Amino acid sequence: MCLTFCSLSCKAACGNLLGMSKGGVKGQRIKEVLSITDLCDNINTRRECILRGLIIYLNEDPDTFFKEYLALATEDAERDLATTVVGIYVIRRDGDQEPEDICVVIEGIKVLSNLGSVIMGFVMLFGLIYVLDLSFPDNLKYTSSFSRRS
């Protein structure tokens, strides 16, 4: 019952995001991100796509917050990790939708790893920002504001 309810919630959220986007570059980016939800049955992947679509809808760039790397390019990930203020790193195997590892990074330090999903990483990061009394990055101020009010 819960899985069906969650799936319906994801479909409703996708519909709402697609309905709100009027077209143009932003609308095309949202459609592109949400098109993955039609191909994937994994609820965590669907939620990740909806979160990315929401960030785009709020005129912010999800690629500045979510960093994706292939498992073979861990050196690149480690190098970029050192310069990251706040973010979520996703390591995937080549051609695989399921992430191999998901990490939360604060001020260049991997504070959490082996999280089950990007959404769990997002929630844990918000908790850490609140507990550590940090400020959310300026480039995601609308996403931060939306998430705190929801």
Number of helices: 6
Q: Could you give the order of the helices and strands?
A: HHHEHEEEHH
**What is the number of E strands?**
4
Apparent shape: globular
Going by helix content, strand content and strand pairing, the class is: alpha+beta
- Report the helical percentage: 40-55%
β-sheet strand percentage: 15-25%
Most strands sheet:
4 strands, mixed
Segments where pLDDT lies below 50 for 5+ residues?
1-8
Strand order of the largest sheet: 1-2-3-4
Rg, rounded, reads 15 Å
How many individual domains? Answer: 2
* Average pLDDT over all residues: 79
Transmembrane segments: 111-132
Keywords: Membrane, Transmembrane, Transmembrane helix
What's this, in brief?
By secondary structure, the protein is α+β, with helices and mostly antiparallel strands. It is built from six helices and four strands.
Walk me through this protein's architecture.
Keywords: Membrane, Transmembrane, Transmembrane helix. The chain crosses the membrane at residues 111-132. The longest helix has 19 residues, at 2-20. β2 (86-92) and β3 form a beta hairpin. This protein has helices at residues 2-20, 24-39, 43-57, 74-81, 118-131, 141-149; strands at residues 66-70, 86-92, 99-106, 109-112. By secondary structure, it is α+β, with helices and mostly antiparallel strands. It has a four-stranded mixed β-sheet, sandwiched between helices. The protein is globular. The model is unreliable at 1-8 (pLDDT under 50). The two termini are 24 Å apart. The chain is built from six helices and four strands, in the order αααβαβββαα. The chain has two domains: 2-57; 64-149, no CATH class.
